[in-house]
Amino acid sequence: MNRSDTSSNQRRTERKRASAPAIVTDVITGQSIGQVGNLSSTGMMLITAKPPRREALYQVRMALLPNGRTLLQSQPIEIGIQEQWQEPAASSNQIWAGFRIIAITDIDASRLEDWLAQA
């Protein structure tokens, strides 16, 4: 069993796809590290051009655009994430990478839950 199979089997929450591109930015470097492929309250899959460091920790920011019937504030959400797995995407020059959310404020967690409920 490969690492990605193990990670997907460990998921406990349903992930939702972003209907509009959600760019994820490294707070420390200010550089974009990828785009949200799917997202849950406990993790996310990013589509990246460069493979992330194995098991690395990142402090990231992302703006989740309105997704559903109710307009959601587009203020960025800031979270701490840790790389769990990665594999080549179907498209060349892209990597799919799974991350676990390890730190999020109560306010951002509430905003994320609201977004997920609308997705």
List its traits:
119 residues; six-stranded antiparallel beta barrel; disordered N terminus
Provide the fold topology:
Blueprint: H1 3-10, E1 16-17, E2 23-26, E3 32-39, E4 43-48, E5 57-62, E6 77-88, E7 95-104, H2 106-118
For the secondary structure, the number of strands is 7
Within CATH, the superfamily carries the name predicted glycosyltransferase like domains
Biggest beta-sheet profile: 6 strands, antiparallel, barrel
What value does the average pLDDT take? 84
Number of domains: 1
If classified by CATH, what would the architecture be?
Beta Barrel
Return the string of H and E elements.
HEEEEEEEH
What spatial order of strands do you see in the largest sheet?
2-3-4-7-6-5
Written description of the protein model:
Helices cover 18% and strands 40% of the residues. It has a six-stranded antiparallel barrel. It is α+β, with helices and mostly antiparallel strands. The protein has two helices and seven strands. It has one domain (3-118): predicted glycosyltransferase like domains (Thrombin, subunit H).
Compose a concise summary of this entry.
Helix content is 18%, strand content 40%. The chain has 119 residues and is α+β, with helices and mostly antiparallel strands. It has a single domain, classed as predicted glycosyltransferase like domains (Thrombin, subunit H), CATH 2.40.10.
